[in-house]
């Protein structure tokens, strides 16, 4: 029991009022799709009471009402596979109740019309006419009800309820068209901040930019990893256009558990993302990832899944015990990859457009200057394949940086990892030992980016 309580791999019983509401609304949603006839039957029988009141008791159907032999079998599966077992069993109860109460002459139809469907379902569970084996067979024979689908419904429901709480408590509701757009004042604030850039922003001991007056979106972050000083340092390393947008906490091991599946569900469609890791030895480091994690599923022209993806805007950082930013080596001119950044603002004018024109490029050279050789000629001396391995992921791990080693590697349980020097960022190991155990992982997205 102690190991079950301490488990970070599976979520068992929710412990807050909000998440309890999320669970029963999740049952209601998946029942409408995967037990449609039973859900419609329940809705018809509910009458004035409404189906919501019935679904709110769904956990008690299992934990309080099922006969002991049934409960033992259900809990055996539950401890092995987690909360998805309860969802399946709840749907199985609805399916069996529908089967036994469809006939208007049946005792369960009479019970529902006389005492209410909520009491009828509870009594049906206490006198379950199906054997434990049949109950579980019904539960696990529901097709296309995957854990990933349940997680998506759960997360969507959770985010909807949270957003309603925010809207209810806010004094001003903005129009949809103006949401997440940077205001003129925010752009002034960013310019004020950008004027404090250090000359060698990517050096191994960069000083934080001076804190200018104004309000920045990062001040809303309540991180369990970084304090405000460290957040401002990290903020100064982000691309300036990204600092205009409001950071949003997408995933944290403290709230969402330690699961790569949950990580992907919550994070994979956001671009860019900011990963921050705090180890059990209190080292703090991470990465700015320029591309969606969903790109791990993309295939090349031959139909093969691409191993690595991402762009040169990706970078690594370390904030404790050492503060340092490690940009892509393609943006460095020194032979050791530690020189000043050569890609100026003028050399990053890739594309522009308005209602009258389209512009591509802001200079005379044809290739991007970030891929030029040290002597100014075009070439790929600084951007070999080994130095362009930005991000990789599958169902068993996440990797950032490659070539001669991996800058950050995490396992499928988001518990253990390792860090080495890699060719992509020419970084030292981000923690002295090379191997680390994750205490907290936080992933932020940028609303409207």
Automatic annotation (TrEMBL):
Transcription regulation in keyword set: no
GO CC aspect terms: cytoplasmic vesicle membrane; endomembrane system; synapse
Major site of localization recorded for this protein: membrane
Keywords on record: Cytoplasmic vesicle, Membrane, Synapse
Origin: domain of life: Eukaryota
SUPFAM superfamilies, A to Z: Ypt/Rab-GAP domain of gyp1p
Cellular localization per UniProt: Cytoplasmic vesicle membrane; Endomembrane system; Synapse
Official protein name in the record: TLDc domain-containing protein
Organism of provenance: Euphydryas editha
């Amino acid at each position: 029991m102690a190991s079950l309580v301490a488990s970070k791999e599976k979520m068992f019983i929710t412990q807050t009022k909000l998440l309890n509401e999320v669970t029963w609304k999740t049952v209601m949603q998946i029942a409408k799709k995967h037990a449609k006839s039973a859900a419609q039957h329940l809705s018809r029988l509910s009458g004035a009471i409404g189906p919501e009141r019935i679904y709110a008791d769904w956990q008690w159907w299992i934990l309080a009402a099922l006969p002991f032999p049934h409960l033992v079998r259900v809990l055996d599966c539950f401890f092995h596979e987690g909360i998805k077992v309860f969802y399946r069993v709840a749907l199985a109860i609805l399916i069996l109740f529908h089967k036994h109460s469809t006939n208007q002459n049946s005792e369960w139809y009479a019970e529902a019309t006389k005492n209410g469907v909520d009491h009828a379902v509870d009594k049906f569970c206490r006198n379950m006419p199906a054997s434990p084996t049949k109950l579980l067979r019904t539960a696990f024979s529901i097709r296309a009800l995957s854990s990933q689908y349940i997680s998506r419904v759960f997360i969507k429901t959770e985010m909807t309820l949270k957003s309603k709480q925010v809207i209810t408590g806010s004094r001003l509701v903005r129009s949809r068209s103006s949401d997440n757009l940077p205001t003129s004042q925010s752009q002034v604030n960013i310019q004020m901040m950008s004027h404090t850039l250090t000359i060698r922003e990517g050096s191994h001991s960069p000083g934080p930019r001076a804190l200018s007056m104004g309000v920045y979106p990062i001040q809303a972050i309540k991180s369990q990893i970084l304090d405000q000083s460290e957040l401002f340092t990290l903020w100064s390393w982000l691309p300036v256009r990204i600092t205009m947008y409001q950071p949003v906490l997408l995933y944290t091991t403290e709230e969402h558990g330690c699961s790569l599946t949950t990580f992907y569900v919550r994070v994979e469609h956001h671009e860019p993302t900011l990963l921050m890791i705090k180890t059990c030895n209190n080292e703090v480091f991470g990465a700015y990832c320029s591309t969606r994690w969903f790109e791990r599923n993309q295939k090349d022209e031959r139909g093969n899944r691409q191993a690595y993806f991402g762009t040169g805007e990706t970078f690594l950082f370390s904030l404790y015990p050492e503060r340092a930013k490690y940009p892509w080596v393609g943006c460095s001119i020194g032979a050791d990859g530690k020189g000043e950044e050569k890609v100026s603002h003028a050399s990053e004018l890739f594309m522009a457009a308005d209602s009258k024109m389209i512009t591509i490029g802001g200079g005379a050279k044809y290739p991007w200057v970030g891929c030029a050789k040290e002597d100014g000629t075009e070439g790929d001396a600084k951007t070999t394949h080994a130095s362009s391995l930005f991000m990789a992921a599958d169902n068993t791990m996440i990797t950032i940086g490659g070539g001669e080693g991996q800058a950050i590697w995490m396992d499928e349980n988001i518990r253990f990892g390792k860090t080495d020097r890699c060719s992509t960022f020419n970084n030292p190991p981000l923690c002295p030992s090379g191997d680390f155990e994750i205490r907290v992982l936080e992933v932020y997205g940028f609303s409207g980016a």
